[in-house]
Amino acid sequence: MMRWTNKFLWKVGRSCCFALIQGGAAAPPYLILAAALAVVASALCADGPALTAPAAGSTNAAPGRLLLRNGDSLDGDLVSIDTNQVVLWKNVDVAGPIEFKLDSISQLDFHPPVPPDRGTNYPCKVFLTQGDVLEGSLVSCDRDNVCLQTWYAGQLLFPRKQVQSVLFFPTAPDLFTVTGPEGWTQGAASGVLGAEAGQWTFRDGAFYASKSASIARDVKLPDTAELQFDLAWSGPLALSLALYADSLQPMLIADKDKIPDFGAFYSMHFQSLYVDVARIKKKENPIINLPPVIVNTFSQTNRVHIDVRARKKSNTLALLVNGQLLQVWTDTNGFVGEGTAVRFVHNGLGLIKVSDLRLAPWDGVLESAQTNLPPADQDTVWLTNNTFLSGVIESLAGGKMTLRGKEDNTEVPLERVSRLVLASAPGEPAKELEGSVHAVFAHGGPVTFQLESWTAGSVNVRSPVFGQAKFDPNAFRRLVFRPLDPAAGEGTNSTPARPPILLH
C-alpha cells in the first residue's frame, strides 16, 4: 500500500516540469512518505525548488544532496560524472568517493555560490520555444540566429526559429529589490475552503507557497509606483496582491467589520483567466469591485511577468502582463490607498512562486492600451513606453536594432526596447535528446540537455537547440534525471468559474 501511495504521489507531482524532492536520509517508511508528499508540494513549474526552508548562508561549503530512485538520499558533493555514466559522490563520513550508476539516481542538488552580476551590456532572458530560459547579454539577433553572451558557457547561439522571446532587464535603479526573507512579515492566514494554512518560503531569490499563506512588507510605496515580479503557478491560480496597505496582516473578507481598524487599500486578484481589483475601505464601507480583465495568457502558460503601476494623482492602477498593457482602472471615487505596504496572499488553491520582485521608478506616463494586437507572423519589438513595432528583425549592431517593415527600415536603440517577441516559425520544435537531463540554474530558469560529462571545472553538454557547450558547474543548483511530463495549461479560452477570493 505504501509503495502504491508513493507511486501515485510521484505521478501527481510530476505533472509539473520537475519533481523536486527534499527529504532527509530515508529509512523509516514515514520518511519515505514525507519525501513523496514533498514532490507534490514542490512541483511548481519548470524552475521551482522544493517548498522547504533554505539553509542559511548557503555556499559551496554546504553539502548537496543525491536522491536515488528508491527514495534514499545522501548528503555530500558531486565529484564527477564520466562518459560511462558513472557518478562519483563524496560524503564526509566516507573516506573515498562513492560510485553510483547514473540510472539509479533521480536527482542531484547543489549549493552554488552567488553568480556574477548580469552586467550592463543589454542583460536579458532568452525564452526558447521548448521551455528553456537562459540569462546573459544579447550579442546579436538576425534573420537566422540569436547570440547570447553568458558568464557560465561563453557565447551560445540559438536558431531563431527556436527562440520565442527576449526579455530585457531594466537598467534604471530600483527603489526596492527583494534580496532575502528578512524584513517580511508572515501573516496568520487561515485555511481557505478547508485547506491547511502554511507559510511562504524563500529560496534562491524567490518566495514559494503551497498552502494558504500571507507575506507582507512596508516597501514605502510612493504616490507614483511600478511594482514588477515574475509569477509562476501550478494548479488553480488564486493570489491576492494588496497595494498601499497599512497592515502587514491579511484579512478575511467576511470578517472585515469585526477585525481591528485598518487603512483602506486595493486588492488585486489573480485568478484563472481573470485579474480584477477590489477597493477595500474601513469596516462599514462596502467593498467595490472594479471591472475584471480577461488574461488569455494565463491559459497558455504557467509563468508570466507582472507589471503593476499606480498613480495617486490620477486615481489609476494599471496592469501589464508580459509587457502588454491589459487594463487601466480609474477609481472615480478617488484613490483610497492609505498605507505604503504590499501584501501577497496565497488563497491555498494551488502552488505559487513569486520571484524577481522589484519596485521601480515610474514617470507616470502610461500609453493607452493597444487596440490592435501585434501580428503573429511578424517580429514584435515592445518599447519601454509600451508601444510596439512590427516587422522583421534584420540585425543588431552598435546598440541598435534594425527592423524591416512593409515600407522601410527602422533603427531602434536597444535602450528603448523592453521585450522582443519573435514570429512563430513553421516546422517542428526541437526534439528532446534521449536521456536528457532537466537542469535548473542557480538563479534562473530551466534548461534541458544531454549530459556528457561533469568535472570540477567543466560540464560538457549537448542540446538540440544550441549544440555542444561547456558550462560552469557553479551555474546549476539542481539536475533531474527522471524524464518528466511538461506542465499542462488550463487549456480553454472560455470564461471559467472564478474561485472564491476570501483572504486579502
Structure write-up:
With 504 residues, the protein is mainly β. Among the domains are: 2-115 and 436-480, no CATH class; 176-360, Jelly Rolls, CATH 2.60.120. 5% of the residues lie in helices and 42% in strands. Strand 6 (123-128) and strand 7 (133-141) form a beta hairpin. The longest helix has 14 residues, at 29-42.
Tags for this entry?
single chain, mainly beta, disordered N terminus, ten-stranded antiparallel beta sheet, disordered C terminus, 504 residues
Average the pLDDT over all residues and give the rounded result. 77
Strand content: 35-45%
The count of DSSP E runs of length 2 or more, i.e. the number of strands, is 36
CA-based gyration radius: 23 Å
The helix tally amounts to 2
CATH architecture label of the domain at 176-360: Sandwich
Q: Record the strand order, biggest sheet.
A: 4-3-2-1-5-36-32-33-34-35
Residue share in helix: under 10%
N→C terminal distance: 40 Å
Large-scale geometry: globular
Taking pLDDT < 50 over at least 5 consecutive residues as the criterion, the unreliable ranges are 1-61, 483-503
CATH-assigned fold name of the domain at 176-360: Jelly Rolls
Main sheet summary: 10 strands, antiparallel
Structural class, by secondary structure, is: mainly beta
CATH classification class of the domain at 176-360: Mainly Beta
Tell me the CATH superfamily of the domain at 176-360.
Exo-inulinase, domain 1
